[in-house]
Amino acid sequence: VLLGLMWLQQGEGGSGLRHTCEQGDRLSRYGWLLHDGENFGIQEIEDGKLSLKTEFVKRPGGEHGGDWSWRITARMKGTGGPAPLLSLFFYVATDGQGMLEPHLENGTRLAAVTGTTEELGHFTLTFLRPTAGSGEDTKFASYNSLDAPSPGLHRLSELVLSSLRSRFVFAPPGGLRRRFFGVDAIGALPESAQRGRLLLHQVTLEPPATLEVTFESGSVTERLERLAGQALSEALKKHVAVFEHRFEQTFGLSRKGFSVPERRFAQAALSEMLGSMGYFQGHSLLRSPLQESPVPGPEVALFTAVPSRSFFPRGFLWDEGFHQLLLGRWDAALSHEVIAHWLDLMNADGWIPREQILGEEARARVPSEFVLQDSETANPPTLLLALERLLPDAPIPFLRRLFPRLRAWYEWFHRTQAGPVPHSFRWRGRDPELERFLNPKTLASGLDDYPRASHPSADERHLDLRCWMALAARVLGTVAERLGEPAEAFRATEQALSDNVLLEQHHWAPELGTFADFGNHSAAVELRWQPAAPAAPGQPPVPPRLLREVREAPQPRFVGALGYVSLFPLLLQLLRPDSPRLPALLDAMRSEQQLWSPFGLRSLARDSRLYGRPNTDQDPPYWRGAVWVNINFLALRALRGYAEAEGPQRERAAQIYRELRHNLISNLFRQYSQSGFLWENYSDSTGRGQGCHPFAGWSALVVLVMAEDY
Questions:
Q1: Average pLDDT over residues 13-25
Q2: Measured between alpha carbons, how far is residue 155 from residues 122, 152, 356, 370, 505 in Å?
Q3: pTM tops 0.85
Q4: Is the CATH number of domain 2-251 3.40.50.1100?
Q5: Any residues with CB less than 8 A from the CB of 334 and at least 6 apart, and which?
Q6: Which one is catalytic: 448, 504, 619, 659?
Q7: 619 an active-site residue?
Q8: Any idea which fold 268-528+546-707 has?
Q9: Domain assignments of the chain as residue spans, ordered by start
């Protein structure tokens, strides 16, 4: 069963219908302020002068999850006259299976829906009449309803828009009569688009107002009272108190001296991540070396957090490991469930698609060039970061279920991503269109346009992947030992990949004074506009093209691009505390001409040739200077480790740690206070949030930074 809300501020001709989170809607702010991931949530939405507050509570019971209630409070700010009419559209739809039965009052008001599905059994959904917000007195409203074949969630907005008509009149007793758009005739939809049944309840009123919806499970046999009105208010109050106590017990921000606004910010960061979690079902489209055409993957299910509700509302493999670092601290059992879901996506070879675009709804939100998942392309195994944190308290049966999949994944990396010399590794799947890109992208690494060797080849050695594989060997070895399984091979690989002498041999660039990738590289590469070729007779003119120009032939060398990749031996703490290379990395981190900014560590040094440079005329710089919270989190975690270990850089690491932590927290809190959002990344020159928003994916790791819980 799909349940949801749309709204429309009347007078906008229907063009302002809000439904799915879209960055293009340009809402002032929205997000979950409190959400415990299981029992309740409170969200605030500001859409121009309209303020919406959505609250829900679940009450366990019966055999199908129990009851659930939802409250929507609508207010208008500063209208100076009659408030504009607001229409709220509550819908319930089946998606492939299940039965729904509408119960109408006066032929127009959808008062309730009864239904049955495999997962929920019998249930009743009741739409209570709106109240004025301050009491229980009902408020005048106009009602419309719609009963239509469901076209699938990704087409519900289209269906509602096509059925809106302006012939309806809002006529409160003794009040102003006004026309409004209401659902009426059903837009034409082909039979092939029908996936089930949609029932929609439209309430049109003048804010302020409060509306409640109750879901009551048929298998709850002892129900003392409906979860509505005062009972819902009391339940919300109780859950808020429990949440705030649990949040302080878990993260201790009050004890650390953070102000109330700072603590509210941290609660909202965690809550937005929890409130963005979703359950997805469908199949990916795969590119296989064994098939010429794309093939559909198997039907799978995925329970996961997502990076961004508005822009990336789906699962990303390397993001998810960072998400689970935070969620695992809040609810270890929830994190176990998510990690298990991800590992169950593995195919027989041990490969997990890096981006989970499952089904029509997901594919409708993704540009076509990113839909296909290549079975030779990896993604950093960050789930192992989260699993390592969970290991001390992880139940043995859980680890025993995971271990065969972890081992298959580990072996797939060694089999498919091996480098040209022993104990080296190479990301596959770099962009083959050399002439288009200033530096061909490496999407597999997660660092997309971070500068690599200018000419991709089989001779590349990628530093970050080598460090990820050292982490993988360490975690697999620990899990094997916990289970009494053979661990010697994992420990031997861990020792080889952690060997600082071998690491330097493969990746220390004396001429650069830092660690680096190795490959077929030319530093003399530019993008230049190429004049248009003469048009063929009768054909439109050919536009000029921005193409890559190589002014010096590439040769095997270390890649001069000081940035996040250079830091990986430090970030994953492979460097010994007494390493003679540690001071150079600390110097680069603290240098304002290189990686240091007042807002966090920048992704590429300011004195790098590709700093801030676009990759094509359509690709602005991404990992070429901006401050990213996930890597700053790893840097803080590592600095804390070096500050606590015996070694000559102990005091320096502690000082950089304190300054970096202060800068990161201060800027994220300041940007949230000004904009209302966490952001994908932050400008290294102004600190302003940039990229997509809200981004309560890895940017929410600021909660752990505030708690100093690494």
A1: 82
A2: 27, 6, 20, 21, 56
A3: yes
A4: no
A5: 37, 38, 327
A6: 448
A7: no
A8: Glycosyltransferase (1.50.10)
A9: 2-251, 268-528+546-707
